[in-house]
Amino acid sequence: MTLRTVRNLMTAGAVVIGLAACGSDSTTAKSPPSSTAKPGATASSTTTGSPGSTAWSDMTPVWKSRAPQAFAAGPEAVADDLAAAWRGGDTSEVGQISVVVVRSGEPLVVVLRETGGADATVLSTDVEITLEGSDEGWVLVSARAQHTCAGTVDPTDPTRCP
């Protein structure tokens, strides 16, 4: 069983437990919002309704400093370069970085995931990076991050795990 399968099973279990804890029954319970990665799709539709998922936070300035130049390579190579940019620097503070989704087309959307980072309250961090094509190549236009918390989301700051 892969780490991804285990993580998906854990997430599904958390949703079931969360619904049971709310006293929901099957006739009134609503499925939690989800994100579907489809080729050619635009920005993710994930919301903060899932137990343990934080609100999205803007990471554009951080990522523009990590990737200030246009990428002349194709979508898969751009995704690998962005993952390498996240791994760069002080790797003792960075967990395992993987490319989760590459939605090619205009705009190009790359989703990276960090697992095993230094903060034990964060199970994983997803970063969704949007790039637009230009004469120089793919230019980073925006980035946002969302954490999956080991427990509940910080009630005073919905973008953080407590």
Key descriptive features of the protein:
alpha+beta
Describe this structure in words.
By secondary structure, the protein is an alpha+beta fold. The protein is 24% helix and 27% strand. The protein has 3 helices and 5 strands; from the N terminus they run αβααββββ. A 5-stranded antiparallel beta sheet has the order 1-5-4-3-2, covered by helices on one side. Strand 2 (96-103) and strand 3 (108-115) form a beta hairpin. The longest helix has 19 residues, at 3-21. The chain starts with a helix and ends in a 13-residue tail after the last strand. 22% of the residues are buried.
Brief summary of the model shown:
With 162 residues, the chain is an alpha+beta fold.
What would the principal axes of the Cα set say about the shape?
elongated
**Helix content percent band:** 10-25%
How would you classify the quaternary structure? single chain
Largest sheet: 5 strands, antiparallel
Strands across the major sheet, in which order?
Answer: 1-5-4-3-2
Low-confidence stretches: 1-50
Mean pLDDT: 74
Class derived from helix and strand content: alpha+beta
Distance between the termini: 30 Å
